[in-house]
Amino acid sequence: MKSPRTIVCALLVMACCTRGLIEIATGCYFGQSTRLRSDSMSLAHATVLFSQEHGALPRYWSKLVETEPRYLDELPFDPWGAEYLLEIDPGGENLRVGTYGEDGVPGGRGDDEDVFGEWHARI
Questions:
Q1: I need a labelling partner for 82 at 20 to 30 A (CA). Which of 20, 26, 100, 103 fits?
Q2: Contact assessment for residue 96 and residue 87, using Cβ atoms and an 8 Å cutoff
Q3: CATH of the domain at 37
Q4: What are 30-71's pLDDT values in tens digits?
Q5: Angle CA 51–95–82, to nearest 5
């Protein structure tokens, strides 16, 4: 089993790599991409802390604000006001955080484009 520090460091490195992918995918380098990056990192960090204390990844974002201790004061919303999407692979090792863009449906271009970051979050 990897140490909690190793897991957090690996997750933060991957989050930084995801930053560039989000900026490229959305085609914007300020406002929305900064918010996506910041929110994704906050959600990823809170998810890792949750998993270290509970032995499993949260299946819903609400667990991060409802569970004691609270991992977030409130849930962030994507730049268009929707809840970020959380996808966890069946093995519980990989986590995807993202948004379907302004239109809120899969697919699209420009502001409607889907943007996801992936993290390896095995406990």
A1: 20
A2: yes
A3: 3.30.700
A4: 467 778 878 888 898 898 889 889 888 887 889 999 988 889
A5: 105
